[in-house]
Amino acid sequence: MHQRLLFILLFLPHLLNAQTLHVAPTDSAVHLDGLLTEGIWQRAAVATGFIQNFPNDTAPAYNDTQVRMTFDATHLYVSVVCFDKNPEKRFIASSLKRDFEWDQNDNFTVYLDPFGDRINGFTFNVTPYGVEREGQMFNGERVASEWDNKWRSAVKVLPDRWQAEMAIPFKSFRYRKGAAWFLMNFARHDLKNNQRSNWRRVPIAYRPSALAFADTVRFSRPLPDPGPNVSLIPYVSSRYSDDLGDPGDLGGKRTFKQGIGFDAKIGVTPSLNLDLTVNPDFSNVEADQQVTNLSRFEIFYPERRQFFIENQDLFASFGFEQNRPFFSRRIGISYDTTTSVIVQNPLLYGARLSGKIGKDWRVGLLNTQTASQPDKGITGQNYTMAVLQRQIFGRSNISAILVNRQGIGALPDSMRYTRLAGLEYKLQTDDNRWSGKLFYTRAFRAAQPGEARNGVDIDQDAYTHGATLSYTSRNLTLTWTHEYVGQQYKINDVGFVNRRGFWRVLPELETTFYVPGNRKLISHGPFTDLMLIRNKDGRLTDREWNVGYNLQFRSTAEGGLGYYAYYTYLFFPYDPTNSDGRELPEGSGFATRGCFGYFNTDKRKLLNASVEGYAGGYFNGQNTSFTAQLQYRFQPYGALSVYSEYNNIRLPEPYKSAQYLLVGPRLDVTFSRKLFWSTTVQVNSQTDNTLLNTRLQWRYAPVSDLFVVYQENYFPGSLTSKNRALVLKLSYWFNV
Length: 736
Description:
Blueprint: H1 2-17, E1 21-23, H2 39-43, E2 51-54, E3 65-71, E4 75-83, E5 107-113, E6 121-126, E7 132-138, E8 142-144, E9 152-158, E10 161-169, E11 181-190, E12 195-198, E13 215-219, E14 230-243, E15 253-269, E16 272-278, H3 306-309, H4 312-315, E17 323-324, E18 333-336, E19 341-344, E20 347-356, E21 361-370, E22 380-392, E23 396-408, E24 417-428, E25 434-445, E26 463-472, E27 476-485, E28 496-497, E29 502-511, E30 513-514, E31 521-535, E32 540-553, E33 558-569, E34 589-600, E35 607-618, E36 621-633, E37 638-650, E38 658-670, E39 675-684, E40 689-701, E41 704-714, E42 721-731, E43 734-735
Parallel strand pairs: 1-13
Antiparallel strand pairs: 2-12, 3-4, 4-10, 5-6, 5-11, 6-7, 7-8, 9-10, 11-12, 11-13, 14-15, 14-42, 14-43, 15-16, 16-20, 17-28, 18-19, 20-21, 21-22, 22-23, 23-24, 24-25, 25-26, 26-27, 27-29, 29-31, 30-31, 31-32, 32-33, 33-34, 34-35, 35-36, 36-37, 37-38, 38-39, 39-40, 40-41, 41-42
Organism: Fibrella aquatilis
Pfam family, one: CBM9_1
Domain DUF5916: 231-646
């Protein structure tokens, strides 16, 4: 009773102030200078009284934040005043580069849900250094920061506060025609005081971006129709490459290529967008972070190409992370029959239609075509994916998908295809406590050579299904996952499945105890998970049990320790070092156990570090594995970091032991908010390769860039060059 009364007394001022924010139009121009001297800012309603999301979601924010809004015929304007009781402490900034990491920077964020579905939206962020970030929101709280669009901001730092003005064109985001209200929330990441706060309270168990807790913002008159929304982004590029071959080769192969192409964004309706790309060039995309490969199965690398990242919740979120019916990185990868090497194949065009149709329906249609190269035995491939999604039961939705890969051309395999059809139900309750999904996907493909059916349907087991259900509360997260993948579910020319013919179940439990009165500790608690994998005959092939304890400190440091007990049954011969050593025999089983741990230091410090590792059993031997990253920020102009991974695998004779070292120093320099330079070196002893990648980016106009990229691969010992490439790419964003 006393606790309930205390809660009411604490929140009574906020409950009395919890009124809809009303936004009036401006009667004069808003000059973006961060000074907030315009009369409209003096008259505008104020969104204030921010409540902590972390570390104590029952307390007001330590630093006050005030937000005001207005609009005119073309823009939505947001101003914010972020008061600062500790100006002697420096702001935390990773760099001046656009699209910063949210949790590594002091910043203010606008969360915008124009359709009121509490699932999809947009976000716009700004730091005290004037660095901008924007993103598309999906799944109710997730943010894809790779989404780019035009908008402007200005920041002013004063002795007791920092303040900003943001001008967001109505053409930059989608909303229903004649909209008179949005769902919105505002967040402030006061990292130097290790606090996250929201205008409308978001419980500590959820991210500040959770749209389930957004509130209504009403406009005094319907927002204007943004009108025709057509953007054209042409590019020109030049690429020089030199393939030197192995040492002792008589000569390499030098090529020089020039390219021209464009992207286009067309607003078909205020809520439906058409994206086009013709002869796209992805040479400016950063290289993948290498890893030491100790897996028996294919390793998953995320998509980095801009065209395929936008609207990823429609096209890339079906299934599970290791069981995806559509994986866009398959597009543009082909097998060169003349060299027996996997090579990149040019993408001729791509088209993507996505967005809202009506109140509860979303649609997505993606089509791409790759080139035919008969001299290399490469058949052009057409990839199509169609999605239709219906919102039901509040924030949940049900989706139908179709995927088709079809060979195009005159080569013998041009008529081969892979097709998939599936249904998925995604659960999200209004209070965010329950979430999950249920899916079924079936594959259809043309018979391959040697797969004459002869009365046997090769596709009889070509399906997968799975489900996950998660309950999240202040102190408890409980998740159940299971899936089945058929033996004939062969989709790795369009999707990603790292193994087939198995059942998997995975229960997970994590408990968190918060200690508000403790000056050192924020929270602590145990966790455990158990994964069981059985083949179709019911035989246990994998068992992984982890149990441990997490600690989270007020300094932003965190750590944990745990114990593991694994069992692995080999259904094919395998060398645990992945180095062509003697293989363990098929049919053998191995029970192992050991310990693991991790620790991350205070990320607010200029010098910070993170380390994790395990030591214990590994198949029929032992492995000691550590990964570590050390970073020094010379903020706000960048950082120097070193990533390293070490594995010491010790197997009994006659099996091979191995020591692998992967070292990756990286230098990021942001000379200004428009000029960025990054250099990465990755030395990998397992692949006997050293990679150098250096990239200069000049954003000379909004969303318009000049890239200069140089990449070279070396033999680690002698540093003899294997191959090198230099790329120049220039793009410009036109609003038509």
